[in-house]
Design goal:
Number of domains: 1
Helix content: 25-40%
Strand order of the largest sheet: 5-4-1-8-9-10-11-12-13
Number of helices: 9
Order of helices and strands: EEEHEHEEEEHEHEHHEEEEHHHE
Structural class: alpha/beta
CATH class: Alpha Beta
CATH architecture: 3-Layer(aba) Sandwich
Strand content: 15-25%
Distance between the termini: 47 Å
Number of strands: 15
CATH superfamily: Ribokinase
CATH topology: UDP-N-acetylmuramoyl-L-alanine:D-glutamate ligase
Bound molecules: 2-keto-3-deoxygluconate
């Protein structure tokens, strides 16, 4: 098996995005996409030229085959995907009510991916890998998913592969009072922790990264990044503990924020694996994340490597603003 740069594991779903605004009961037309946090992340990496290994399960149904087809179109390897003859592929719907972020409705209980278990993880897929990336969605899908995610971080530890972790807290999947118990163990095994302000608050009781950075570094991570959407991103490394702030990009047409966080992770990880300085990794994360917000699907807007070249983002330099984007603001400390 060829080596993967990054190995990840999670649930892909078919997304039906409402074609008109308003409560779903009145919506008659939907657009169909593939989605899922780790699938989005994998596509973000593949577009930038890395080779992700995506461990998952899909149903032997139309939607499962649609997801496999989307993976092939995006140049993702499908050899770590199991097709489950018994269980269906998960589905989710996006509703636009005009105010605030879109609402999501999941139909994924008992899905093929929720049956992921240790048995689905072939340890040889980590040979030669440079990173394992997990999000907090997978561990909360079912007890066997938690075991599978934990097995992956244990294998990574045994093989000396660093782990990046994005808690990606979804309160429709896990009650708030279970989040710490379910997800903090993954924080302790991570070298990179990538999270947003809400997740920082749920896990550590504050939206101020500076206030809890020492506590986080004591738990294990060596780099912590706070994603702040239109206010940019900040990050800190264990060795100098200096808060690095980077402004956000805003596309000319903002449509939908879902998928931006996974895109940020892909951009950040790409910079990290290329040895870029923290500031440049944050900038690329912001760029990939912002690109996702200009389209309705989760990942369709993510850039390709050639886009980075055109935007002058290679090697961490930003020579000019990417086409159609403006800088919204300086990042701040999240106070
Ligand atoms: O980050 C985007 C994801 O939330 C979306 O693709 C659906 O994976 C998904 C989930 O579990 O919410």
């Amino acid at each position: 098996m060829a080596a993967y740069d990054v190995v990840t594991c999670g649930e892909p779903m078919v997304l039906f995005s409402a074609g008109t605004a308003g409560p779903l009961r009145y919506v008659g037309v939907f657009r169909k996409y593939a989605a899922g946090a780790e699938l989005n992340f994998s596509i973000g990496l593949a577009r930038l030229g890395l080779r992700p290994g995506y461990i998952t399960r899909v149903g032997d149904d139309e939607f499962g085959h649609y997801i496999l087809a989307c993976m092939r179109v995006e140049n993702l390897d499908t050899s770590l995907v199991k097709v489950d003859p018994e269980r269906p592929t998960g589905v989710y719907f996006k509703e636009y009510r005009g105010l605030g972020d879109p609402q999501v409705y999941y139909y994924r209980r008992g899905s093929a991916a929720s049956a992921l278990s240790r048995a689905d993880i072939d340890p040889t897929c980590l040979e030669g890998a440079r990173l394992v990336h997990l999000t907090g969605i997978t561990p909360v899908l079912s007890p066997s998913c938690w075991e599978a995610a934990w097995y992956l971080v244990e294998l990574a530890g045994q093989k000396g592969v660093p782990v990046s972790f994005d808690p990606n807290v979804r309160l429709k999947l896990v009650p708030r009072d279970r989040v710490r118990d379910d997800l903090l163990p993954f924080v302790t095994r991570s070298k990179l922790l990538l999270l947003n302000e809400f997740e920082l608050e749920v896990l550590f009781g504050t939206r101020d990264l500076s206030a809890v950075a020492d506590q986080i570094f004591d738990m294990g991570p060596e780099i912590v990044v706070l994603k702040m959407g239109v206010r940019g991103a900040v990050g800190m490394m264990v060795n100098d503990r200096r808060l690095v702030e980077v402004e956000a990009f805003r596309p000319a047409r903002f449509l939908d924020p879902v998928g931006a966080g996974d895109g940020f992770d892909a951009g950040f990880v790409f910079g990290y694996l290329n040895g870029w300085p923290l500031e440049a990794c944050l900038r690329l994360g912001n760029y990939v994340g912002a690109s996702a917000t200009a389209v309705l699907g989760d990942y369709e807007g993510y850039p390709y490597y050639a886009d980075l070249e055109r935007a002058g983002l290679i090697n961490g330099a930003l020579r000019k603003l990417p086409e159609g984007m403006t800088v919204t603001s300086r990042g701040n400390r999240g106070e």
